[in-house]
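User: My instructor asked us to take a sequence, write out its structure as tokens, and then describe one feature of it. I'm not sure where to start. Here is the sequence I was given:
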Amino acid sequence: MTGTEEVESLAVDGLRWLVGVARDTGGGGLGWPVRPSDDGVDPMLYNGTAGVVPVLLEAWRHFGDDAYADTALRAARSLSDAVDQHPDDSLYFGLTGIALVLRTIDRELGADEAGAAADRALERVRSRFDGTRWGDLFELMGGNAGIGLGAWAAGDAELAVRALEPYLRTAEATERGGVSWEFRLGVESRLHHLSHGTLGVVYALAAVGSAAGRTDLVELARAGVADVVARDEGGPDGFLVPHSDPQRAPELIERHSYGWCHGPAGDAQVFRLLRDVLGEPAWSGLADRCWHTVTHSGLPRRPRPGFWDNNGRCCGTAGVLALACDRIAEQGDSPDFARTLVADLVSRAIRDADGVRWSNVEHRATPSDLEPQTGWAMGNAGIVRELLRHVRVSSGGDPRYAFTWPDQPAVPGTAAQATEPIRPVGADVTS
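Assistant: Let's start with the prediction itself. The structure tokens for your sequence are:
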């Protein structure tokens, strides 16, 4: 097999393992635990059932195999059943993410019942808003910023704007001439990056603000990004901002990270968005500097314990691969670094009769190899989704995803790709 065919075959085996550990939830529904050994299933986008659905849609479009769409529909049934009981409202951990996935199932597969469940979920989110926030978290993953992004993507513009307006009155001026926000009630540290920090709020303000014609939100985004840019320690060629100030949990958290969640791989996604919505070339330069830092950091090598112990989409190699493929699609970057990332994922795959999965590492635990996970953040769903896209990008296929994640700007397809279905590269890969 060629390298591309090998990667595609690996992805198929990753899907086979993923489908194999799914659980019947009754009434024709299907759900996933975070880990196969867990009791019960989890509906959340971050590392539960909602986060598995995007890779099922990706596989459906990539291979043209309706079995993946049928599995996605069964997952939607379990998500619909979870709407009335789930206690969290956020994008990554709660009902907003569940609603977005259900809405996508309705749009892509014509499942009216999924669309109705999405409406019900968003109404529950709306009803639990206290006028300022939904809970302790006040950022992208678990707070207002993510709810605004997810609501907009799910078609609820009014809720999206309402979620973001509180940032106007809660912004804190910083000594660097910008603003920041507390990411969690009562925590002194101010986080800076996409998942839990200022840049996640910036992304939501800029994306929703520009789409809704709210210049006040867009200008607030500018103030937030100004604070983060002023903290750069990687210039002039690179871009590297600390995790937080004052450093949160220094005994556990490294001062600098390089992935999507707390590092330049995620920062670059914010700069890509600002480039698109503001039409200013300086943001492309900052994204390039992020990429310089990522590619010169040493990853995906693991020269010391804790440096790069994660394969996943949130904190590890798959999240960097997502940006690498964005750059190939948009700018014609060399594919060499993307191939290095893929080769590392291939080398770390666990293979047996059940299929393929990946184990992350916690160097402070014994044993250090963690149980493989199923979902988007740390498991098969996030990794396989990026491998399938890399296969298409490598072969001149469609670089777009079947499901557009709300905090990753979409890349354009060609006119031909806009009308032609995604096709597999290898032959008989599903047999």
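For the description part of your assignment, you could build on this observation: Residues 322 and 386 are 6 Å apart (CA to CA). Try explaining in your own words what that tells you about the chain.
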